[in-house]
């Protein structure tokens, strides 16, 4: 019988009994239809996870108790970071979902110069809440106990300043002269950069080209959508890492 997975940061705290928040309690009862004494696996997003029993079950408050040993998944030695733009809501949420499923470790999200004005005016706090919710739901389903990190910047220039210096960095643009080949990967720490629907602005391209560590590449003759390009590249890199 399948054991359902629940997200709760309190699972790794000293007290063996802990409360779920309203949303997780509601999900446990109404969506999963679980009852008292049912068993669930609970993870905290930082690698800790444990088998737990439902002690109290109500729509607004569920109390769980650890009955197994608390286990820990170590941080991976091979990591993939993506620098991606804000795009239209449905496409953006789809992109976050699929990249999390593939196993992206760090998301650096930026507002592109050529972004649509309807996107530029979006409430950042709502975006943050939604991507965290998407990541939690994906990790529940795929069994990953480590939630990816999310950081947000008002421009690509600011985002580039926050790329880890020891990472191998690739930027993908249709105007690049060299084709991307996974065999050229030399580092276990990789960052990829992709642009919005309208492409990079001249200012953004100039900034990207001026950074020697960034390797400009294209993905082939077919022009990929803004949400498709990072998914394709991430799949190739994860496969190279031996994770797919």
Unreliable runs: none
* Structural classification: alpha/beta
Gap between N and C termini, in Å?
26 Å
Give a quick account of the main beta sheet: strands, pairing sense, barrel closure.
6 strands, mixed
Any idea what the radius of gyration is? 20 Å
Summed over residues and divided by their number, the pLDDT gives a mean of 91
N-to-C order of helices and strands:
EEHEEEEEHEHHEHEEHEH
What percentage of the residues does DSSP assign to strands (E)?
15-25%
CATH architecture label of the largest domain: 3-Layer(aba) Sandwich
Q: Which short descriptors sum up this protein?
A:
Alpha/beta knot, Ribosomal Protein L25, Chain P, 6-stranded mixed beta sheet, 7 helices, alpha/beta, 31% helix, single chain, 244 residues, 25% strand, 6-stranded parallel beta sheet, 2 domains
Descriptive overview:
31% of the residues lie in helices and 25% in strands. By secondary structure, the protein is α/β, with parallel strands linked by helices. Strands 1, 2, 3, 4, 5 and 6 form a 6-stranded mixed β-sheet that branches. Strands 9-8-7-11-10-12 form a 6-stranded parallel β-sheet, with helices on both faces. β4 and β5 (62-66) form a beta hairpin. α2 packs parallel to α4 (124-142) and α2 runs parallel beside α7. 30% of the residues are buried. The mean pLDDT is 91.
